[in-house]
């Protein structure tokens, strides 16, 4: 995207680092933050000077519109380090495009491309020691934008804040994942914001997911809001189903997030001769496939979740077991292929790695 923003990133380094207080072997997802953060405000119709500063709390007027109307969008991305100490992002162009798509839908101003990439790479470089090498280690990056106008009128804000914070991460889900297929609640509707990474999409899932968790399920797989017939996504991840030897995932729509991991896996499946169909899939199809023994695998795919094999699912009060996770070969093949690319351990023929 071309723009009139020339780079003038201001950097204030932290006086000391917290890194020695962190137990990198025992991280809880999203609880630990690095030494620095990126911040840039939109005021008087334009993005102001972007800054990197020590990670810190910030004050905001209680009337800030983000608190009242949820005008907020975010992204999830990761940095990886190889054994030589080189650091890579994975397809950051996709996150950049998507956050601006989300911004447009939420009536928020788009963020300039050069600010995004310079901010991101400078921040990751400053906090480079927080990116640990080794498969399974990463630095989770959370770009987000919020409405900061001090005004409670229900209208788009005049001012916004774009930030990036970073958190060292291991697996999002500890242990196996069982899912409940939603029949009562819906995640998103036609013409809504389901395709956007809008903060409210996640808040809206907390209550139904908490009910599922009380029944022993970690996640809900959402079905279409109109008929609850078609399987859509799991909220923290897109979902893939393997029936016989074919992998199936739902097409993106205005209700489904265009996941970067999802589209990368579709490409990797094609590159590795794994039959893949991007099409609508009915709940009845996987129930039937489970009953007749042709449902081999279900897995979730997302930046935070990576690839999470699913142990079984509940639908209409019946629990369906999947084959043993050890036998889920497509998810483990694709996970290894993707992580090897991310960690610079294999050829990157699609040019997804972006060196920091
Ligand atoms: C991600 O995978 O990056 C997400 O944004 C999901 C989030 C719920 C952790």
TrEMBL record:
Its EC number is 2.6.1.42. It comes from the Bacteria. Belongs to the class-IV pyridoxal-phosphate-dependent aminotransferase family. It comes from Psychroserpens burtonensis. SUPFAM superfamilies: D-aminoacid aminotransferase-like PLP-dependent enzymes. The keyword Transit peptide does not apply. GO terms for biological process: isoleucine biosynthetic process; L-leucine biosynthetic process; L-valine biosynthetic process. This is Branched-chain-amino-acid aminotransferase. It is an enzyme of class 2 (transferase).
């Amino acid at each position: 995207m071309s723009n009139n923003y020339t780079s003038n990133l201001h950097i204030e380094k932290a006086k000391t680092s917290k890194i020695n207080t962190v137990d990198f072997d025992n991280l809880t997802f999203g609880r630990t933050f690095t030494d620095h953060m990126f911040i840039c405000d939109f005021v008087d119709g334009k993005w102001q000077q972007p800054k990197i500063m020590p990670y810190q709390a910030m004050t905001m007027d209680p009337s800030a519109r983000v608190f009242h109307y949820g005008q907020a969008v975010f992204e999830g991305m990761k940095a990886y380090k190889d054994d030589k100490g080189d650091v890579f992002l994975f397809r950051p162009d996709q996150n950049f495009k998507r956050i601006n798509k989300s911004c447009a839908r939420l009536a928020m101003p788009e963020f300039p491309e050069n600010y995004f990439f310079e901010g991101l790479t400078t921040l990751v470089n400053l906090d480079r020691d927080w990116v640990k090498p080794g498969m399974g280690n990463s630095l989770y990056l959370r770009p987000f934008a919020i409405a900061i106008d001090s005004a409670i009128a229900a209208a788009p804000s005049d001012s916004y804040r774009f930030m990036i914070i970073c958190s060292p991460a291991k697996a999002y889900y500890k242990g196996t994942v069982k899912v409940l297929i939603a029949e009562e609640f819906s995640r998103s509707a036609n013409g809504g914001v389901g395709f956007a990474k809008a903060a409210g999409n996640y808040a809206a899932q907390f209550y139904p997911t908490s009910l599922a968790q009380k029944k022993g399920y970690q996640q809900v797989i959402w079905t279409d809001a109109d008929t609850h017939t078609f399987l859509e996504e799991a909220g923290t991840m897109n979902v893939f189903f393997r029936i016989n030897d074919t992998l199936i995932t739902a097409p993106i729509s205005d209700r489904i997030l265009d996941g970067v991991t999802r589209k990368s896996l579709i490409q990797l499946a094609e590159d590795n001769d794994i039959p893949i169909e991007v099409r609508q899939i009915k709940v009845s199809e996987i129930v039937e496939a489970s009953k007749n023994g042709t449902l081999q695998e279900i897995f979730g795919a997302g930046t935070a979740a990576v690839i999470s094999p699913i142990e079984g699912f509940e639908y209409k009060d019946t629990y369906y077991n999947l084959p043993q996770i050890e036998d889920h070969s497509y998810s483990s093949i694709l996970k290894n292929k993707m992580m090897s690319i991310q960690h610079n351990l294999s050829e990157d023929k699609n040019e997804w790695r972006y060196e920091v």
